[in-house]
Amino acid sequence: xxxxxxxxxxxxxxxxxxxxxxxxxxxxxxxxxxxxxxxxxxxxxxxxxxxxxxxxxxxxxxxxxxxxxxxxxxxxxxxxxxxxxxxxxxxxxxxxxxxxxxxxxxxxxxxxxxxxxxxxxxxxxxxxxxxxxxxxxxxxxxxxxxxxxxxxxxxxxxxxxxxxxxxxxxxxxxxxxxxxxxxxxxxxxxxxxxxxxxxxxxxxxxxxxxxxxxxxxxxxxxxxxxxxxxxxxxxxxxxxxxxxxxxxxxxxx
Length: 253
Hints:
Layout: H1 21-37, H2 41-58, H3 62-86, E1 91-95, E2 98-101, H4 102-128, H5 131-140, H6 145-174, H7 183-213, H8 230-252
Antiparallel strand pairs: 1-2
């Protein structure tokens, strides 16, 4: 079974692709952090517009963007609809026993733009930067090495585990197994998960011994990244100006 991998278009030649990885990590992490805590709707809408513009600036194929983002966006919209009818406040509209309040609409709209902006910023960062370079930048920021190694190995083998699980499900279906909400089905699914855990452990041991045999000592060997240029510094400055403007947006208007 084939799975869509991240970073498929990370080698394109666009403005964002050509920005130094360290500059992109600093800028987009800052934008994601601010987008997640921005206190006003106008600032959140502004950051959402910036996030959409960054996707356009990356020149990623529209079909690919939609394919990667439609599921998380649907989840965010579902969360938005739940918040509208569950937030307490002064009712302004009702549908049966469900009530929408002004406070609920304001809060859910803020969360909608916050979450979508964070998603889009993270998407642009990951799709325009090779995963190894992101790890390299995090390593240069003195992130604990054990965490980075776990992240690298998880990224490498998540698709292997998905293939293992798919093979087990296909084998079960070929023998007449149907997923249902009953004890028999849940027991079979539990057995599959148990087998997957055992296989993961065994594969982990094999991978570890293979790495040791090739000289692995528990440390990541990193080559030096290219030097940051003037345009990369300007990109960071511009990103922080966007952040400042987002907080001042409501006052300015």
